[in-house]
Design a protein that fits this description.
Helix content: 25-40%
Number of strands: 19
Strand content: 15-25%
CATH architecture of the domain at 103-221: 2-Layer Sandwich
Number of helices: 17
Largest sheet: 5 strands, antiparallel
Structural class: alpha+beta
Shape: globular
Radius of gyration: 23 Å
CATH topology of the domain at 103-221: Uridine Diphospho-n-acetylenolpyruvylglucosamine Reductase, domain 3
Distance between the termini: 20 Å
């Protein structure tokens, strides 16, 4: 479809009349940060970036977009890892939620907080803390990702083991539909059996069915005690046995259980400089174990009991318990910087998969062997949320090899890793979404009836196909 420059400019002028010229970016240099994603895999194209300041302005934008057939790509903090936030059409407008940044209400009686879509996750966490509450969603990008994006991708993170995904932390939504209608579903109810629960259509839909503009989030009692341990283990199976011990001894107090390799810790120690190895000698694998409780006693004893039982069972080789908040933060930094630390490797092929928790050790073994058949000197780097079965399975290029030559194997390695996950009844996307990156894989992993229902919802809610085209479906 060929659209003249003058007609495109005319439409953008009409959008500018809605949000104000100050909040429209048209210059390529100004738009550039909104057109590229953090790993530089995609560089998009768009006619403009719009920054609405209210739900009403979002509504007017979508009414006009639906009328003119203008593609609209919603974007939060631009931290997505599957390309879902990148515009792919030069006629498109990026709808940035950066100005939808109000925390509308904190309601302690219902343990809820109503946030607009552009509220940064870390700010939501800090606001909850002011009221002696916890908003438990926690991600590596929490200083820049936003609530709308978290919900639109159904973000997971390090606390999903106990608190669940973003979907599980939401009570109500405000959504603008493709035709501009506003659905106000900002309810605080835990019980509401009045027909179809429409909220969950929009969670994880990546802006393809409607644009989330606000949400009611669940809050929890703030923890009174937190214990963090860094544990050396011999294998993923030993880590799994330690998880069983931890959950049998501490139950839901086990709020995080992260798995890392020795190579991953070595990468993390070098990035940034000054990081230290928490244990005195190296181990093949590591577990970052955290217990937390709203009760201010008993957690330290529980941690010691877990580690003692793990040692006696032959699963724990060495361990240290953080003696201060700063030391706990240093343990967590080793884990959180792993995705960025890979950049210094010179090339990696990343995967975000999940399998049943009991199958994680076998998945890691089979996937590692399979990719080494493709690139014999490649360096598999599995890490992530063993407690909920979500592994970030990166494959790093061989040392002293050509980056382009290694990345030429991307599709073959992707196909292989996803096939192994499928053999364990797993998922090709645990928490990063489908976006553009995994769209072609979706028909191969979804039941045909399920996929047909998804297409039906898309056609019903967005008949003109203006909402984030080219993503998910």
């Amino acid at each position: 479809m060929n659209v003249s420059v003058s007609s495109t400019k005319s439409v953008i002028d009409r959008f500018a009349a809605i949000v104000g010229d100050k909040y429209v970016l048209r210059d390529p240099a100004d738009m550039h940060p909104f057109l590229v994603e953090r790993r530089d895999i995609y560089e998009g194209r768009a006619a403009a970036v719009l920054k609405p300041g209210s739900t009403r302005e979002v509504s007017e934008i979508l009414k006009l977009a639906n009328e003119t057939g203008t593609p609209v790509v919603p974007q939060g903090g631009n931290t997505g890892l599957s390309g879902g936030q990148v515009p792919l059409d030069e006629r498109a407008v990026v709808l940035s939620t950066v100005r939808l940044d109000k925390i509308r209400e904190v309601d302690l009686a219902t343990n809820s907080m109503t946030c607009e879509a552009g509220v940064i996750l870390q700010r939501a966490q800090e606001e909850a803390k002011k009221y002696d509450r916890l908003f438990p969603l926690s991600l590596g990008g929490e200083g820049s990702c936003v609530i709308g994006g978290n919900l639109s991708t159904n973000a997971g993170g390090t606390n999903a083991l106990v608190y669940g995904m973003a979907r599980d932390l939401m009570l109500g939504l405000e959504v603008v539909l493709a035709d501009g209608r506003i659905w106000n579903g900002l309810r605080k109810l835990k019980k509401d059996n009045t027909g179809y629960d429409l909220r969950h259509l929009f969670i994880g839909a990546e802006g393809t069915l409607g644009i989330i503009t606000a949400a009611v989030l669940k809050l929890f009692p703030a923890p009174r005690a937190v214990e963090t341990a860094f544990v050396g283990v011999s294998s993923p199976q030993a880590a799994l046995e330690l998880l069983k011990i931890a959950q049998s001894r501490a139950g839901t107090a086990v709020t995080s259980f992260e798995l890392m390799t020795r190579m991953g810790v070595q990468f993390a120690i070098k990035h940034p400089p000054g990081m230290r190895d928490p244990l005195s000698s190296p181990h093949p694998w590591y577990v970052l174990l955290e217990l937390s409780s709203p009760v201010p006693f008993g957690i330290h004893e529980a941690m010691e009991e877990i580690l003692t039982a793990g040692t006696e069972g032959g699963y724990v080789e060495d361990a240290t318990i953080a003696s201060s908040l700063e030391q706990s933060k240093s343990f967590w930094l080793l884990r959180m910087i792993l995705p960025d630390a890979q950049r210094g490797i010179g090339g990696s092929i990343a995967h975000d998969v999940s399998v049943p928790v009991s199958s994680v050790p076998a998945f890691i073994e089979e996937a590692s062997a399979a990719v080494l058949k493709i690139v014999p000197d490649a360096r598999p780097l599995p890490f992530g949320h063993l407690g909920d079965g979500n592994m970030h399975f990166a494959v790093c290029k061989p040392e002293d090899s050509n980056r382009a030559g290694f990345l030429a194997h991307t599709k073959e390695i992707n196909d292989t890793v996803y096939a192994v996950a499928a053999r364990f009844n797993g998922s090709i996307s645990a928490e990063h979404g489908i976006g553009h990156m995994k769209r072609a894989y979706l028909p191969g992993v979804k039941d045909p009836v399920e996929l047909d229902l998804m297409r039906s919802f898309k056609k019903l809610l967005d008949p003109n196909g203006i909402l984030n085209p080219g993503k998910v479906l």
